[in-house]
Amino acid sequence: MDNELINSSHNNDEQILSEILQVRRDKLSKLQSENRDPFHITKFKRTVFSSDIVNQFDEMENTEVSMAGRIMAKRQMGKAIFLDIQDDKGRIQLYINKKDVGDELFEDIEKGDIGDIIGVVGKVFKTKMGEISVRCSSVELLAKSLRPLPEKYHGLTNQELKYRQRYVDLIMSPETRRTFEKRSAFIKYVRMFLDDRGYFEVETPVLNTITGGTTARPFITHHNTLDLDMYLRIATELHLKRLIVGGIERVYEIGRIFRNEGMSTKHNPEFTMIELYEAFADYNDMMDLFEDLLSGAANEICGTYVVEWQGERIDLSPGWRRVSMIDIVKEHTGVDFSSFNDTEDAVKESAKIGVKMPDGKEPSWGDLLYECFDQRVEDKLIQPTFIIDYPVEVSPLAKRKPSDSRLTERYELFICRSEMGNAFSELNDPIDQKQRFMRQVELRNAGDLEASMMDDDYINALEYGMPPTGGLGIGIDRCVMLLTDSSSIRDVILFPTMKPIE
Questions:
Q1: Between vectors from CA 237 to CA 231 and to CA 240, what angle results, nearest 5°?
Q2: pLDDT in tens, 56-69
Q3: Taking the CB of residue 70, how many other CB atoms lie within 10 A of it?
C-alpha cells in the first residue's frame, strides 16, 4: 500500500510539472505568434548591477538606471507589481505601476513567470517600507524560462541533483556561489603568491605517450591520425622538471589532472593541481613555501587563520608540526621501524598491530613503514602536519636522504585526515632515476596498473644536468574544501564527474 501511495504521489508530481511546462510553452508560442519572440533579442545595454544601487543609493537616488536579471519573486497588489530580480552581483526589488508602463505592458508582466530574464529601465528610490528599489518605466522580456525554479525556501534539496544541475544550484543558492567565488579567489591568490616570488607560469601537454610523474592509473585515449594510444596526464611533474633542466629555475603550472581511480568525497577522476619547482631548493624550502601560501590564503580569503572543516577547528597559523614518518608511526602504534635490521622484523611487528600488505605485493621494510602509517596513523592527523622522510619504495622521484638511504627527502601535508600536498627534494641523479623507473616497470609488468613507465627522454634530460631542486604539488580542490568547510570534493568542482542517468 505504501508503494502505491508513493507511486501515486510521484505520478501526480509529474503531471503537475507537465502542465506547468505546457503553460510556459504556450506563453512563448503566443509571443512568437505576435512577432515578440524574446529569443530573437541579441543584446541589452545595462548601466548598473544590483549591488551598485544598494551600495551607492545616496548618490543614485532619483537617477535613471538600466539593469537586467532573473525574476526570483513576484507579488501583485492591485495595479502595482513587485518583482525581485537577481543579477551577477545580488538581488534588488523592482516596482512596476500600471500608470508608469501602460495597460499592455502591465498585462505582459502579470503573465510573466518566476525564472524569466528581463531588462528594465527606471529610477532608483526607496519604498515607504524603506526598501531600496527601482521604479520601472519599461520592462523587456529577454529570455523565457520554460522550466519552473525549485521552491523558494528549499532550493535543490537533492544533493546529487545539485551536482548534476549546477546551473539551478547557482541560481537558488547564494552559498554555492560563495564557495566558487572563494575557489576563484584562492587560485588568484596562488598565482599572485608565486608570481611575486619570480615563478614562471607555463602549460604542458595533457596528452602523453607515456604515463608518469606519480603512481596512478591513467585514462587511455586514441589519436586517430597517428594511430597511437595516448594517456591523459596523471601529473605535470616530468615536463616541468625538463624546464628546470632547460634553465627556467622557478616554474609552475595550474592544470587539470586525470586519474582513473575510485571516487569518494576526496577524489574526483579529474581535478585541479598546481605543481611548482624551484632550482637550488629542497623539501624544507617547499615546507616553508606551502605553509606561507596556505596560511596566507586563509587569512586573506577567510579573514582568519582559524577555520572550521569537517566538524574540526583547524588552526592554520604559521608554525605547523614537522615529524618523520618513522616517529609518527612509533608515536601512534609503538612500532619503531628505526630499530629493525631486516624485513622479517618489520613484517612481524606490523602484523602485531594488524597491518597487512595489499594482496599480491611482496613486503619490504619501506612498504611496511608506509602501510603502518597509511592504515594506523593518517586518519588521526587533524591539525596541519608535515609528514616527512618517506621510504624510497613509495617515492620513485624523490632524492634519497643522505643520513639514511632507505628514506627520501619527501613530505606530504595532512590536515583533518586529508592529504593536501606532496613535495620532494627532487631526484636529479639520472642513474638512480633509471633504476627506480626499472623497478616501476617490473611492478607494472607484474600487474600494477598504477606503476610508472620508463621515460627515456626524461632520463636523457637529467643526463644534461638538473640542479638540486625542490618540488611541490598541491591539490587545489582540497584546499578549497578546507577554506569553504565543504565535506565533498564535488561541492567545490562546478561540474563533477557523475554516472549518466539511464
A1: 110
A2: 999 999 999 999 99
A3: 19
